[in-house]
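Subject: Os03g0199800 protein

B.,
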Amino acid sequence: MPGCTLPTYTRARCASANGDDMLSILNSLSEYFHLINGLLMPANEDHEIIQQKPIYVVFDGKLPGVYISFEEIVAQKIDAKLMGGISWKKYKDIDEALSQARKILGINYYLEPAAKEYIQKCKKAKGKKTPEIPIKTTIKEEGYSKKPTYKECLTKGVDPLDGEYIDWKIIEKFKEASPQLKKELKEEILKELKQEMDHKFEQIKKAVDEKLEVSFSNLDTMDLGGHGQPDE
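Prediction pasted inline below.
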């Protein structure tokens, strides 16, 4: 019986249980559960789980802008030769990060390609699900970045052998090795300069000797003063 609904099933139960009524019951149940499944399916359709990532806003550095790659932050610190570092801040909320970037850097701030792709995916996924109140969490204080300790990593549930803690360890080791590297580089440069100067000096000395070389004949009877030598 086409177009049957749940009330039809109820009425069918009240009728005599012959073959037609049983068929109506089965058809009604089939259409009913099909309707229920149709209402539930859109909630899970095209649902993409996006792993939440922090947003980094660099306010003062080589290339101020919005990033999601912490490696870029480390690279900019190294480019700054570790002299005071760079000013940046870390966010979990995309809207807050973009708002601060526009407020401080202006509308033409740099947007890392990976960050742009991540933000677009988050916006798209957010549009497909029921809107919820965003929880804004500021991870780091604005200003020069602070190195996390091993204990802090464990407290936050972060693996100390992965991610930001390793990046800071790389920077720390670079700082420790930097004076020795500078000393070795200076000694190497001075050694090369000394070799070049010695080589140039030998070339000049040789050229001067060739110009000042005077050949005296064995038959010359003039002394160095211009006087003739007496015959023996």
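Residues 55-146 form one domain.

T.
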